[in-house]
Prior knowledge:
The chain is 44% helix and 5% strand. The chain contains 8 helices and 4 strands, in the order H-H-H-E-E-H-H-H-E-E-H-H. Bound molecules: heme C.
Amino acid sequence: MKNTAIIIFVSVLMLGAIVQSDKSLAAGGHETHMENLEWSFDGPFGTYDRGALQRGLQVYRQVCSACHSMKHMYYRNIGALGYNEAQVKAIASEYMVEDGPDDEGEMFSRPGKPSDRFVSPFPNRKAATYANNGAFPPDLSLITKARAGGADYVYSILTGYEHAPKDAHLLDGQYWNKAMAGNVIAMAPPLADGMIAYEDGTAETVEQYSRDVAHFLTWAAAPDMEERKRIGIMTLLFLAVFASIMYAVKRKVWSDLKK
Ligand code: HEC
């Protein structure tokens, strides 16, 4: 009996080893590397950090928005980051929005309003691709949902630039990035230490900028996450209380019959 148990145990271990070695073979060549960070929004009680969200919006506005659109966002949405109505209006009005046609049939530009969508850096996909050496900068509204790893992925891309290994052949405008599939990305490293001035004394480093913008993009893709978690917990609490009441009722109903 004992021997059989040992044989089964050893076989399972060996099987595990084979599966493992198979995985590393399949990956082959250079592997992609994903950081695994702790986020305040992790877990069933996790919430967003308003400071990080505001800094992340700042990083997006000052850097990423030069190339990446966020078409699903409206300026009024950023009220949820802790800005009051006047601040939201002020931020929206920093952008010029195309509107019209006017009474003469002409399109015209006017300052943005809270009801406008985030202004895109390029008029269409072709213009964006043309301006970026043939690579399209994807819309970032839902990027943390569209890519495995979510916030970790965005953070890993932004901090994943490295010197290319000697055997790599990079074209002009291509960069070595250990987090990107295939390790080659057509986005120049967008961040550098000290390039964005934070007002709240947070470290002005590539790591911190990347963390903050990943936090912000996670919120943008799932702004109702906190509410959903709250409802989930309330539902579980309700079910627990309801179950115990039902159990008490059942005992009461059956108590006579058992005698
Ligand atoms: C100068 C233009 C430019 C700027 C600025 C820029 N990006 Fe990019 N980004 C690109 C392009 C072009 C690609 C597509 C790269 C490719 O497909 O190889 C890209 C790709 C990405 C990807 C990978 C998308 C995927 O398909 O998995 C992420 C994530 C990303 N950018 C986030 C950001 C963030 C966050 C910022 C701001 C900190 C930023 N980018 C700033 C041009 C830019």
